[in-house]
Sequence to fold (484 residues):
Amino acid sequence: MPPSPRVIPIVAEPSGGDGGAMYAKEATIHPRAVHGWFAAWRWALVWGTQLVFYGLPWLTWNARPAVLFDLGARRFYIFNLVLYPQDFIYLTGLLVISAYGLFLFTTVAGRLWCGYACPQTVYTEIFMWVEHRLEGDRQARIKLDNSPWNANKIWRRASKHIVWAAIGLWTGFTFVGYFTPIRVLAAEALSFGFGPWELFWIVFYGFATYGNAGFMREQVCKYMCPYARFQSVMFDRDTLVISYDEKRGEPRGSRARTADKAALGLGDCVDCTLCVQVCPTGIDIRKGLQYECIGCAACIDVCNGVMDKLNYPRGLIRYATQHSLDQGGAAPSWQTQLKRVLRPRVLAYSAGLLAISVGLAASLALRSPLRVDVVRDRGSLARLVGEGRVENVYRLQVMNAAEASQRYRFSAVGIEGAQAITRGETVLAGAESRWVPLVVQIGPEQAQALGPGAHKLMLQVTREAAAGQDAATVVEKTTFLVPR
Fold:
């Protein structure tokens, strides 16, 4: 007889529960302000990255924005470079360089990008600074959260959100300024004349900045960013990561500043929990490295301050490798440091980064200021004209990648006696692109010698030399059809 099925009773959640065990609401994290060497570095990068981001659209170069991605005209201006969609390979190279750089830095010293230069970290720092100035430090913000709504709370909260919204909208405005000349955009703003797409992207990017840096904060790093999940693949026991020296700090416990820790049987950690209070993701670094740690080093700064007050050596929390901690935390010799730096994965990432960077730089330096695409005229592949001559018609897209006016001439190579004919001279203004019709003819004798069918032909476009400019030639392959 088969056993009776097991019955699992379903117990209703008691009234006033927290919504069930499948989801637990996380407490709001109120990071404490911190000062120190690493905090200064973090703010230096905040200033540096934002001066570049907010300042670049306002720079001019040759009477145009220095950096402009003109999607309508399909041209991308980066200082003296004029790039076309056909130059997409350079963007690919830049992305590969960024990936190799991220892998290299992570292998050597953990999440440096996340802790110092990631836009999420940068804007969270800016928004938290505003919050600190308007609502006070950690304890004041917690007290304000728990207080009833009154005039003081409304004023402080409203002021904070107004400033946050202004920063977000200015960030969105600057972002759109990389695609629409920012001075034109500013004039449109003053006259309330934004186009629909410009208005959409300003509001969208501004809202994303406001939401991510003001509300989501550590949730983006912990749950949305994939880097937190795969960073452990690039770590090894020789990677510099923020570490708590357990051998030195344990057993932890509070004590008077003048107390003898050895007599009390205590380590250096006084269990002040300041390292937890300053952490923007709310983790306790004393539990070991966790994927939520973004490597901002705020815990190092605050712990060093505590050690200074107790006259203990700094470095209870520090950048260290797992190997050095296993060996008692002593400072490694220069031979050990050199061996750590020259380990295989570091050398592989460095070699790849160097090779791709050199290749991209060389390609940009040797890049021709002239680009040509050839398209056959589909309306007339081949035809007979006067005196038995055979004619093929082509359309050439000629792109002037320089910012000075250029004059071009055309010729046909590869078939003896072929003549290239255009309608007058071809002159392109700086950064101009134009479709040029081109006719190639051969005589009846050449056609008879070639025979019917498709024959290899080279179309040669030459930029004539001008003041301060050398001649340049581009050759494109195509075919010449001889009818039966």
